[in-house]
Design goal:
Layout lengths: L1 H16 L3 E11 L1 H6 L4 E9 L9 E20 L7 E19 L6 E22 L7 E24 L5 E15 L1 E4 L5 E4 L5 E3 L2 E4 L2 E12 L1 H4 L1
Antiparallel strand pairs: 1-2, 1-12, 2-3, 3-4, 4-5, 5-6, 6-7, 7-12, 8-11, 9-10
Length: 233
């Protein structure tokens, strides 16, 4: 699963580098439905997308790929390092969701202000990772994935672009982007901030897994750049 996720991630990043429309945003995520019953807090993260062409009057839609990362929970603890008196370890347990989608955007309006609609289909890799570092080390001493799962999801979004810069070299326009999305996720097992129950006799952590659908609502603030590299060639 991890190898597949890595391949998809590299493919998506590579595609966006050659996109005609490139978007980047900061994201706030809010679990919905049964997911919210287990994770009743706001998540945060980022989103990147690239499309194969920019919408025009003749073709007011485009398709591309979308990649997002959301942290929906984190627990930070400070514990003594057994065998090293006076030395403490900083433990961080992070609950995350990485999603990747095929994106379709419909943008029939042109000008300074451009409303648009989105449709998305893909999947999410939901996982919990624990990392440990010492006070005297900036890098992690150790890290491990405590639990992971995969869920399919689909949904849509609505947004509005505000033009902030006009044509320049290799760029048609730059826009401020505000949008919201709702994604319906299939059932998955995952950990939350309250999942850690303790340590067993062998020194292994004990977690309580939650299971539910993984719907969530997100709000995005970002920048979109419409390129014109292919048109000039």
């Amino acid at each position: 699963m991890k190898k597949l996720i890595t391949v998809i991630f590299i493919f998506t990043i590579s595609t966006t580098l050659f996109s005609q429309q490139l978007g980047l945003s900061f994201m706030f995520g809010y679990p919905q439905g049964d997911f919210r019953s287990n994770v009743d807090r706001m998540g945060f993260g980022g989103q990147l997308h690239g499309t194969f062409w920019t919408p025009t009057h003749e073709m007011p839609y485009t398709i591309g790929l979308d990649l997002g990362y959301l942290v929906y929970g984190q627990v930070d603890e400070r514990k003594p390092w057994v065998g090293f008196p006076g030395v403490y370890l900083n433990l961080s347990r992070t609950n995350s969701l990485a999603n990747f989608h095929i994106l379709m955007e419909v943008s029939p309006f042109f000008g300074t202000i451009r409303p648009y609609l989105e449709g998305l289909f893909g999947g999410s890799y939901i996982f919990t990772q624990t990392s440990v570092n010492a006070d005297y080390e900036d890098e992690d001493i150790a890290s491990t994935t405590n639990y992971d799962d995969f869920t399919w999801n689909y949904g849509g979004g609505v947004g509005i672009l505000f033009k902030i810069a006009g044509e320049m070299e290799n760029v048609d326009a730059i826009y401020f982007d505000f949008k919201s999305r709702y994604l319906f996720g299939t059932e998955a097992e995952y950990l939350t901030e309250n999942s850690f129950l303790g340590i067993d006799l062998n020194g292994n952590p004990i977690f309580k897994k939650e299971k539910s659908k993984t719907d969530f609502l997100s709000f995005h603030l970002g920048i979109i750049v419409n390129m014109n590299i292919l048109q000039k060639e």
